[in-house]
Amino acid sequence: MKKLKLAIVLFLFASSALVAQTLTDAIKLTTNEQFEKADAAFKSLIQFQPNNGELYFYYGENYFINDNREMANKLYQKGVDANATNPFCYVGLGKIQWYHGKQTEAKANFYKATTLAAGKNATVLIKIAEAYTNADNKDIAEALNLLGQAAKLEPKNPAVYIAMGDAYLEQNDGTKAVDNYEKAGSLDPKNPRAILKQGQVWNRAKNYNLAIETYKKAKLIDSTFAPAYRELAE
Q1: What does the CA dihedral 38, 39, 42, 44 come to, rounded to 10 degrees?
Q2: 3-class DSSP state of 107
Q3: N or C: which end of the chain has fewer CB atoms below 10 A?
């Protein structure tokens, strides 16, 4: 019985590690704008862990980034239905509401997400900040406030500084934006997004030669990173 119990524990541990790794791969497919492949990957993951709310959130993100908010919202709601204590899908629901001008409802869902995260999950704060930054009805001050909290929780997380750079860029502060993108790149030199973001700053400043050079660097880091090819083409 002891050997059997040990075998079960080892199997569950190995399975959890496999899912975590595969989730990372699925998210990368979304980041690389390979939406159909990501769709298949998330479906497979959810079959394996149907009660994992975080999987539904990132599956929803795959649709949100591909401009299908209706399907994204359905998946965020499925995540809440599958696991009401996971904070991520409340972020997703709140983001949809924020983008549609329902600020009171959105903030209620953001509050629920941060309450469930109990101040211990930097990614939850980053995702809320991204909603405040990227929507038409921006709240950059609140985005920077949340990202400051995220930086205290995970000072070596490059995603914090990419999001912070995005927020400063929306304030037309290119210097602070580049500083944060460079910090993200120094923390993770193999992160093509950090390089791409710098190129976008140069592009906005009409320094096209430097933008092209930067996009090429991002493409060299990851040859499957579609945004670098798109930006370079444009």
Answers
A1: -110
A2: helix
A3: N
pTM: 0.88
Count CB neighbours of 38 within 10 A. Answer: 25
Tokens describing residue 124? 């939850």
CB environment 101-140: b (16+ within 10 A), e (fewer): eeeeebbebbebbbebbeeebbbbbbbbbbbbbbbeebbb
Tokens of 68: 């299908």
Token pair 């983001």 is found at: 95
DSSP 136: S
CB-based contact 167:143 (threshold 8 Å): yes
**Among 176, 171, 120, 174, which Cα is nearest to 149's?**
120
Q: Is the pLDDT of residue 228 over 90?
A: yes
The CA dihedral of 216, 163, 154, 93, to the nearest 10 degrees, is -130
Residue 182: count other Cβ atoms within 10 Å of its Cβ: 16
Averaged pLDDT of the chain? 92
In sequence order, the 6+-apart residues with CB closer than 8 A to the CB of 196 are 214, 215, 218, 225, 227, 228, 231
Residue 19 has pLDDT above 70, yes or no: no
Residue 87 DSSP label: S
Measured between its terminal Cα atoms, the distance across the chain in Å is 63
